Amino acid sequence: MKSIYFLLFFSVLIFAANITNAQKHTISGYVQDMRSGEKIYSANVYDLRTKLGTTTNEYGYFSLTLPSDSIDLSVSFVGYSAFTTKIYLQSDIKLNIELDPSIQLAEVVIYDKKSDEMVKSTQMSMIEMPINQIKALPVLLGEADVLKSLQLMPGVQSGSEGTSGLYVRGGGPDQNLILLDGVPVYNASHLFGFFSVFNPDAISSVKLIKGGFPARYGGRLSSVIDIRMKEGNMKEFQGEGSIGNVSSKFTFEGPIIKDKSSFIISARRTYIDVLAAPIIQAINNAAGNSGKFRAGYYFYDANAKLNYKFSDKDRLYLSFYAGRDKAYTNSEDSYVYDDTTNVENMKFALLWGNITGALRWNHVFTKKLFANVTVVYSDYLFDTREQYIQKRGGKVTSDFLFDYISGIENVGGTIDFDYNPAPKHSIKFGVNYLYHTFKPGVSTYQITEGGTQIEQNFGNQNIYATEFYGYAEDSWDISGLIKLNFGAHYSGFIVKDRFYKSIQPRASLRILLNEKMSIKAAYSHMNQYIHLLTNSTIGLPTDLWLPSTDSILPENSKQAALGFAYNINNNWDITVEGYYKTMDNLIEYKEGASFFQLSQNWESKLETGSGYAYGAEILLRKNFGKLNGWIGYTLSWSWREFENINFGEPFPYKYDRRHDISVVAIYELNENIDFGLTWVYGTGNAVTLGVARYQSIFNFDPQYNDYYSYVPEIEYYNGRNSYRMPAYHRLDVSANFHKDKKWGERTWSVGLYNAYSRQNPFYLYFGYDNNKRVLKQISLFPIIPSVRYSFKF
Amino acid sequence: MKKTIIFSAIIFLIIWGISCEKTIEIDLEDAKIRLVVNAEMNPDSTIAVNVTRSRHILDNAAIEAVSNATVKLYEDDVFIGDLVYESRGFYKINYKPIIGKKYKIEVTHEKYDDVYAITEIPYPVEINKIDTIKTFSEWGDEIYNFSVKITDPAVHENYYMVCLRNRYTYQMWDDNIIVYDTLYVGPDTTIVHIEYGGYRSAEAIQKLWFESDDMIIEANIYNNNSVVFSDELFKGEQYALKLNIYRYSFYGDTNMVYIDLYSISPEYYKYLVSFRKHQDASGDPFSEPVMVFTNIVDGIGIFGAAAVNTDSIQIINEGGYYYYK
Fold first, then answer.
1. Among residues B97, B121, B145, which one ends one of the domains?
2. Using one digit for the tens of pLDDT, what is the confidence trace for A342-370?
3. CATH number of the domain that A590 lies in?
4. Residues B51 and B131 placed together within one structural domain of the fold
5. At residue A411, does pLDDT exceed 90?
6. Cβ B55–A692 below 8 Å, yes or no?
7. Residue A277's domain spans which residues?
8. How many distinct structural domains can be found in chain A?
9. Euclidean distance between CA atoms A135 and A150, whole angstroms
10. Do residues B134 and B85 both lie within one domain?
11. Is B84 inside a domain boundary?
């Protein structure tokens, strides 16, 4: 029945759009960068006379239908000279516009949307971060990081020190839909969460939506992080690279056929393992071990993208990402016995990573109808391997292998349509299909002895699931003052003969108070069919993605948000938002369970419960000038309630953070030197800490009036997460020194992470100082300097 | 297991390599000292209640018994009497609780908040049958697989605890035994060797170590060598509980194994299960700490009740092997 409502709703939407379609003509085309030919996403296309406008879609395409008249067309985007032209509109026009990036203020141009998109759009709770800004911010070990930059925005909280997990409006890190060129990425972190897998050199845009989700997005409760890879320069060859404390990276891009086809390829790798190898061997030898010993850790990632323009109507993109982390040890000892050399070889490896691929076809059916077809593939793998080999006289006498593999694999496709039937309507609709293969952990033992091989597999079996959705939304300019984006997202999930479905209404309303001020309101219902099993405080590769099953139901959330946007002048703007969110069917480990026990029967180790979060966010931004940046403040509450945890009483979420402040400033001294500064403050994380100790009932016998052995003690807690760690605050600073060279440009970047070396809490435990019991705090990062040399040609 | 150790080691090495440690001040709003009351009542024993007090988390002193409290006992809301202090926090009364009755204790002390707790003595449940088979572990150890059949009464939600005891005979050294040994008998000489002390057959009862991976087991309580479970999965039905005993757990020659099936009060069950989880989670940085259940209102501890039913099976050691009788 619900499906019928959905179809009805969709038909009405199309009809409503068409009845207003008379005596009008359409301007359509692409907006792209003049120098690189890179398509520009989210550029504003606007008629200054009628005040009607639109923005380009993810592929740089726009379609604007206006009354037949003379129009003043203005096209603008962050850091580009605005393009304006006068046109007398008497027929449909195809217009490809190239914007000139020459006004870009060195490396540090900040959000520059002169057309007040922030005030006029119906979309609220959205943050766009220019990639140049992400690169200009001071960061841990000089590794610019897409996800960590988003943590500096209100409503987005970081988890543990230094990690890249995002906690959006009281939600968990698994409730973020991270899309790389439209492909969902799972476990998006390197080095146990300290770095995210996205190499900023290969990224063109980053957008985060925290609430007021348009109907086109679904599948996660708390946020959508839409990351787009660069397409590659269509005009000329270009390269950039850098060498830093932790990693080196290189990117190369250029045309294959000028203005028709281009490529980009980018890679980075850490090299601490290469540098440390001789030191580790020397330490091993100094310890009196004669054998060979190698140990290390590295990660790498690579991005590649190809695109081909068949005509103005058809374009094809092929993008690819691969990343791997590996920690390993390898030791080999040999000895001679009975004139025969015996060798014992012990290997251990821990590796994990993602592979994603997307093939995308853009097609312009008519001036008003744009289509995008995407086929996606992604695979996340976690593998622990341990091997012991014994050789005698060069012949393997014994080989023992233990292998544990878990992961998630997805293959699917999407068809999206953009339909702009009338100046006041912009309609999007589409369908998506994803086939998941969940691999919840299989262990293999393989023993080869005396030529006989025994192999034994045990663990959880693969689970196959189908997920699909359809959506339709209309952005409707009801009057010049009121604009509404409304729609619905219908999704389904089939797993083990079980079918889950949901209809999720979405709506965002904007009321313009005047040219500079607007009030916005939004409601969205979200559903999530897959769950992340984790109880670690850092992003571990063992974190396991699992489907909804008979006993673990899909998660869902309802969020309402109210906001105010004010463009103080063209340079300063402020947004204030409040939200209330409820979440159901959240999962947690049962009390006392830990991921190390997750070898079998994972469903029995889980509890399901609910959560609710509310708060207010303020963002004050200075968009450009010599000194630019922002101040963000979040006041928030986030609670969880599980029947069998904390005896059913609600408790604060681990990352319930009452106050969260971030100050970001970038100062451009001159064309060659700029400085960056960030300061963050957050209420301490909620932890469960014993307040008292008392005696258990065990090991004393009332009949004998005496204790006959050790009496175990119990720690008494006031409730889960009832204690607050000390507050977290940190200052990071950086300086970039640019210089033009004959071959291009070089930049030296130096930075200090945690400049005043604040010992921020990471973990608390009770220990002893001179036989006195005390509470101790482990801190992770003291002041850490970084240096990076970058070049561009 | 090994992989988890190596894996933890890698994480800790990374964290340790870059971390530093300091002592911080603790500000605990609710670190109030409370009365701790512990008691396990059963119809076979007179009632004893242990009263101690909690200590601030940083207080390193030994457990402190509370000696001058008033402990009152009620049965089905009828006052039975005051418990009398003996030693080490134990208060006693010469009264055995009765199956099916409700008991309340009130503990008052001038320095602490008054506390009370209520529990009911559950009905014992009979063991229908015990079956045994012998298997071998992957290392070749002999294991006795016990199958203990019980029928769950349909009327209530029932909670159980199973303990095993072992009565065995062994050769005990006794200093009072004098052993004479005539070594030489000559025409006029007899040499007798006299030893003071010798072995004699003795009997003892001890808790028997066992394991169980039966799906109904909610917790293994190592501290009293028991397993606890509820009837959630076999409500009103018969169930054969699987228990495993390694041969090396037995002592002596002849072994009589007693299987004690305790029906326990729901509060006691919650206490035992949460206690085990509390122990598992403590010291594991990847686990959330677990609170231990308490039914002592305004205080802490457990006022639990149990009623036991025992069955037995004899195991004889013959020629180095055990068999059942």
1. B121
2. 888 989 888 888 999 999 999 999 888 99
3. 2.40.170.20
4. no
5. yes
6. yes
7. 2-17+19-685+725-792
8. 1
9. 12
10. no
11. yes
Three-state SS annotation for A513-578:
EECCEEEEEEEEEEEECEEEECCCCCCCCCCEEEECCCCCCCEEEEEEEEEEEEECCCCEEEEEEE
Residues 522-561 on A with a CB inside 8 Å of B are: 535-538, 540, 542
In a domain, B183, yes or no: yes
Here the ipTM equals 0.86
Number of domains composing chain B: 2
| Closest C-alpha to B226, from B275, B161, B274 | B161
Please give the angle made by the CA atoms of B212, B258 and B39, to the nearest 5 degrees.
80
Residues B99 and B146 both lie in one domain: no
In the 8-state DSSP scheme, what is residue A258? T
- Give the model confidence (pLDDT) of B1-13 as tens digits: 444 445 555 555 5
**Average pLDDT over chain A, rounded to whole?**
84
- SS3 state of residue A637: strand
Paired sense of beta strands B35-41 and B300-318, if any = parallel
Q: Check whether A457 has a pLDDT greater than 80.
A: no
Structural domain contains residue A86: yes
Whether residue B178 sits in one domain with residue B240 = yes
Q: How far is A701 from chain B (nearest CA, A)?
A: 9
Give the number of A-B residue pairs with CB atoms closer than 8 Å. Answer: 201
Residue-by-residue DSSP string for A578-595: EEEEEEEEEEEEPTT--G
Tokens of B69: 């409290």
B105 class by beta-carbon count within 10 Å (0-12 exposed, 13-18 middle, 19+ buried):
buried
Minimal CA separation from A753 to chain B, in Å: 13
* A711, part of any domain: no
Q: Rounded to an integer, what distance in angstroms lies between the CA atom of residue B182 and that of residue B191? A: 6
Strands A369-392 and A238-244: unpaired
Distance between CA atoms of residues A675 and A492, nearest Å:
49
Higher pLDDT, A131 or A735: A735
Averaged pLDDT, B14-39: 74
Contact residues on chain A for B284, CB-CB shorter than 8 A: 594
Residues B196 and B223 in one domain: yes
- pLDDT for B14 equals 55
A697, part of any domain: no
Higher pLDDT, A632 or A192: A632
- The domain in which residue B39 lies consists of 29-121
Q: Which residue has the tokens 């070594």?
A: B183
CA-closest candidate to residue A352, choices A229, A192, A227: A192
Q: What are phi and psi of B272, to 5 degrees?
A: -65, -45
pLDDT (mean) for B65-93: 93
**Judgement on whether residues B182 and B221 belong to the same structural domain of the protein:** yes
Within a domain: A311: yes
Of B66, B99, B121, the residue at which a domain comes to its end is B121
pTM score of the predicted model = 0.81
For B176, the token pair is 């009072």
Q: Which of A537, A591, A697 sits opposite B277 (nearest CB)?
A: A591
Rounded distance between C-alpha atoms, residue A478 and residue A706, angstroms:
82
The reported pLDDT for the residue numbered A13 is 46
What is the reported pLDDT for A397? 85
Residues of chain A with pLDDT > 70, as a percent, come to 90
> Same domain for B191 and B319?
yes
Q: Which contiguous run of DSSP H or E holds residue B191?
A: strand B190-207
A82-98 tens-digit pLDDT: 888 888 888 888 888 88
Look up residue B313 and give its two tokens.
């099976």
A685–B contact, CB cutoff 8 A: no
> pLDDT tens-digit profile of A727-738?
999 999 999 999
DSSP result, A444-502: EEEEEETTEEEEEEEEPPPEEEEEEEEEEEEEEE-SSSEEEEEEEEEEEEEETTEEEEE
Which of A383, A714, A718 to probe by mutation at the B interface, max B CB count within 10 Å? A714
pLDDT attached to residue A63:
87
